[in-house]
Amino acid sequence: MYSMRIKAAASLVLLMIAGVATASTPTAPVKNGPDLPSPLCDRLRVPEGNKLHSQVYADGVQVYRWDGLSWVFVEPIATLFANAGYDGRVGKHYVGPTWESNSGSKVVGARLYGCSPDTTAIPWLLLEAVSTSGPGIYSSVTYIQRANTTGGLAPAGPGSFLGETVQIPYTAEYYFYREQ
Question: Long-range contact list for 87-90, CB < 8 A, 24+ apart?
Answer without folding.
Answer: 90/56
